[in-house]
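pasting for ref
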Amino acid sequence: MRIAIVVNKFPVLTETFIVNQITSLIDGGHDVTILSLTKGETRNSHDAIHHYNLLDKVRYLADEPKSKITRITFFIQYLLKNKKQYKVSKVLKALNVFRYKAQAISLHTFYRNQWFLGEDFDVIHAHFASVGVFITGLRKDGFFPKSKLAVSFHGSDIIPQNIERYKQNYKLLFEKMNLIIYNSEYTLSILEKTTTIDSRFKLLPVGLDVNKFKTAETIVRKEPFEILFCGRLVDFKAPDLAVEIVNELVKKGHSVHLSIVGEGPLQEKLKKLIQDYGLEQNISLLGAISQEEIVAHLGKTAVFLLPGITEEETKRAENQGLVIQEAQAMQVPVVVSDAGGMKYGLVNNVTGFVVKEKDIPSFVEKLETLIQDEPLRMDMGKKGRAFVKEYFDSKVLYQRLLEYYNLLLNENFTH
């Protein structure tokens, strides 16, 4: 298949799941083009981006100049430079003054549609709803009528607080998309409040290549007992609760160390909290690090902790939390809250523990159990890897995505 993966920014260090999907499609023999609205950070990026030469597969949307002369100059240069990559009929369509009127004369329709002036894509797959809105706007204007359209919701694009706004802003998206993917049952529960669910809506969690995640070194207990938190330092991921939990463990005499990976608006609050509790030797703030560095830290971790909450104001919570599966892939037990969709990404009491959100004593109790019961921790770790391999491995999810794409192309989805 000829597949366009459309994103807001590429590459993005925190969006490993998109890279995993792209590389799985490439490994499957498909012709993948990455279309990105803006340029991301290329210096500190995943190894896979270089291994698969993904930067050679990405096209960035050229900004529409304000100056009319600059717009026309770029337009002529584009046609001369890319004369082997576009179809004259598609360029003429973008310049159809009878249909697009002033937008054609100003070249606005050309700039919006510049990605799609060449050969048709079989599938155009947008990640995040905002990108899907952009794509369905072009479809409404009559572009790429033969391509099948897909969109993946990931979490930041379906926040409960904004449901009424989404009903209007996503109306065209829900009308025009042929395939709508959600990453957890929690995400689906929000979509159900936003639109009517039909056969186009399909579950597909974001996944990982299990073979790239090896067994952690901490199968045998070491001191201090290493705990890892990984995620944006924002309210709904609750890194401050992770500090509170470790403070309680230290007060109870446990030799523990917490590494906090990530950056965000709560960073200064965490620094002060660590200082106030005198936990400088027990907690390290590591900032944002690469996927490979996260794997290295997981390799030295005994337990992964993500005590996320449902924010009071926005009602936002973690939709999936891929790092929960990454930890289990390395045979690291996980302890998470029941907020949002995290609980769907493990087997409670088998590969880790699900704790009621904000219940610090229960978090402490579960962590104490794992500190004191090494055989249980080892057993949970082994079962966790098996669980992730069966349900979250990129190869498994690739086959499911391929099934969805094939249904699209065979027109077996009802609209």
